[in-house]
């Protein structure tokens, strides 16, 4: 994760066990989506210091399979905030613990999370942009937010 970006972020790392997989040793997509959803939630709880729910997951792409024994690292990065919603970019990379292979991107998605107070959408703190990297991330998140608004 880029350390010049100070927008809220979170990262977790897990080894995939048989409980996460089918009988052939392939990790279920839903297991990986659960990890991603959890990290997106943590990012937004850090930003709002409150309660958040998942409103949408956009264009989740499974680039590579994940197998039992692989280590997955999931990172979430706040990219943009609307009024009560937040765009979080979530990436999963996989380490196969095999000397011949490098860490590979496995999944990516944008999550829309909504801040709730008393069960209703509530304003989120604005983002303060300090660096060029943050500006680029913000523009990417804003583009995603606007695309989603057109679909609602
Ligand atoms: C998400 C939810 C709170 C939105 O409620 P709502 O009454 O439609 O809210 P509003 O129309 O006032 O919209 C609030 C914000 O959510 C965004 N939003 C609402 N539905 C959305 C959707 N389907 N996709 C993306 N964003 C959405 C709006 O764009 C708005 O963003 P903004 O404030 O930044 O402009 C409501 O649909 C809900 O509770 N859904 C179930 C959430 C859930 O159970 N998730 C799984 C467990 S965490």
UniProtKB/TrEMBL annotation:
<feature type="domain" description="HotDog ACOT-type">
    <location>
        <begin position="6"/>
        <end position="119"/>
    </location>
</feature>
<dbReference type="InterPro" id="IPR006683">
    <property type="entry name" value="Thioestr_dom"/>
</dbReference>
<dbReference type="InterPro" id="IPR040170">
    <property type="entry name" value="Cytosol_ACT"/>
</dbReference>
<keyword id="KW-0378">Hydrolase</keyword>
<dbReference type="InterPro" id="IPR033120">
    <property type="entry name" value="HOTDOG_ACOT"/>
</dbReference>
<comment type="similarity">
    <text>Belongs to the acyl coenzyme A hydrolase family.</text>
</comment>
<dbReference type="GO" id="GO:0005829">
    <property type="term" value="C:cytosol"/>
</dbReference>
<dbReference type="GO" id="GO:0006637">
    <property type="term" value="P:acyl-CoA metabolic process"/>
</dbReference>
<dbReference type="Pfam" id="PF03061">
    <property type="entry name" value="4HBT"/>
</dbReference>
<protein>
    <submittedName>
        <fullName>Acyl-CoA thioesterase</fullName>
    </submittedName>
</protein>
<dbReference type="GO" id="GO:0009062">
    <property type="term" value="P:fatty acid catabolic process"/>
</dbReference>
<dbReference type="InterPro" id="IPR029069">
    <property type="entry name" value="HotDog_dom_sf"/>
</dbReference>
<dbReference type="GO" id="GO:0052816">
    <property type="term" value="F:long-chain fatty acyl-CoA hydrolase activity"/>
</dbReference>
């Amino acid at each position: 994760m880029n350390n010049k970006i100070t927008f809220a972020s979170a990262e977790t790392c897990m080894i995939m066990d048989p409980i996460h997989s089918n009988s052939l040793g392939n990790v279920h997509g839903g297991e990986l989506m659960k990890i991603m959803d959890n990290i997106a939630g943590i990012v937004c709880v850090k930003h709002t210091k409150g309660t958040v729910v998942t409103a949408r997951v956009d264009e989740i792409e499974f680039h590579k399979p994940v197998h039992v024994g692989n280590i997955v690292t999931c990172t979430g990065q706040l990219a943009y905030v609307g009024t009560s919603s937040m765009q979080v970019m979530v990436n999963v990379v996989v380490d196969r613990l095999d000397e011949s292979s490098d860490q590979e991107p496995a999944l990516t998605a944008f999550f829309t999370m909504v801040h709730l107070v008393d069960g209703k959408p509530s304003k989120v703190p604005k983002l303060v942009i300090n660096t060029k990297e943050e500006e680029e991330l913000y523009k990417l998140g804003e583009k995603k937010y606007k695309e989603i608004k057109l679909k609602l």
